[in-house]
Amino acid sequence: MLDIKFIRENPDLVREALQKRQFSEPIDDVLALDERRRRLLTEVESLRAKRKAGSKEIGAFLKSMEELQVPPVPGGRVLKAEEVVLPQDVADKVNELSEEMRQMGDRIKALDEQVGAIEEQLNDLLLRIPNIPHPSVHIGKDESDNVVVRSWGEAQKYDFPPRPHWELGEALDIIDFERGVKLSGTRFYVLKGQGAHLQRALISFMLDLHIGKHGYTEMYPPFMVKRECMVGSGNLPKFADNLYHDEEDDFWFVPTAEVPLTNLHRDEILTPGTLPLYYVAYTPCFRREKMSAGKDTRGIKRGHQFDKVELYKFVAPDSSDEELEKMVGDAEEICRRLDIPYRVLQLCTGDLGFAATKSYDIEMWAHGCGEWLEVSSCSNCGDFQARRANIRFRPQSGAKLQFVHTLNGSGLALPRVLITILENYQQGDGSIVVPEALRPYTGFEVMK
What we know:
alpha+beta; 448 residues
């Protein structure tokens, strides 16, 4: 979420940034609502000040009542306030002020309701505005304008026609498309035998490397979360149509572990010395894939359910750019250890994710499909998610509170890594050699 004060003070900058992102969010509506809200708040504050002054005035009149010379009562009984008859001029003044206070109270209540309605509209608009691109992000309209910043490895040369993974998987009886559709419909499949084992081996291998070498703490979060978690991470309200939702309990199935990891520290103030925090988590991911209707219908490249190992960081603002480069390097190491060619792209403004201010994609080469497959997207979100989830920290004791910066990235995403292994390690006889880094996890060296 963008800071409303920042939008108010830099409207042209925000408009220009959103144009670069190919977004047309109603900044003028945001500013108009903000101006109206502040005007009403000023009126409310003025009325409350007047009501406070009026209450003091009434108190002064009532105080004068105590100072009246009241005749003694037989038996020494103390008169109750309602038994004391005020002089007519005092009583009239008290009644007049009391009526003014009542009318002010009614007006304040009505204004508070108006402010509440405006703030709800304003908040809804602010939640739909994407993050502003980092100054280093180049301008572009879509993925065709992304820039390759480096590449590693060379594609193998085969003395036979390489086959796509859907043919290899069926021939080896490690992927069952027909029964996947029977169970759940299109874009579902079943991994069998060595195929399921290879998937499990990949997850364990990636987790172990990120934990043991890169310094991440493993987390195993819930796969369903509350609505406020989706809001905090930036998925709601903008992308509700692409999420799976249990309406009865208002649970949302995670589209990525980024969602629960973002909200681990929601509404918290992190103490000095806490940052940085590195987390890694495996979860299945659930997405409706409405935005990709008709794309990649063959094979296991794109489905409504897939597995992913997610990297996540909470860091101080002055280190987030450096931390992004380190995160990309952590994800790249997985590719190198699997010995599969890959390339790193910096995303242009038009291809940035909603919450990201700067992003890199990592794509691995799939020889059978003859294409680059995205296996990771690493992003610096700045304080965008932290504002939504109210995550702050103190740099040192007594220092002013600041919002943390959050970063996320795939480390890596399945099943596309599985695809690249099948297609790049295929042999002429239809077997698949297991990458050396995975053999301690599989217990077998060849799938055949």
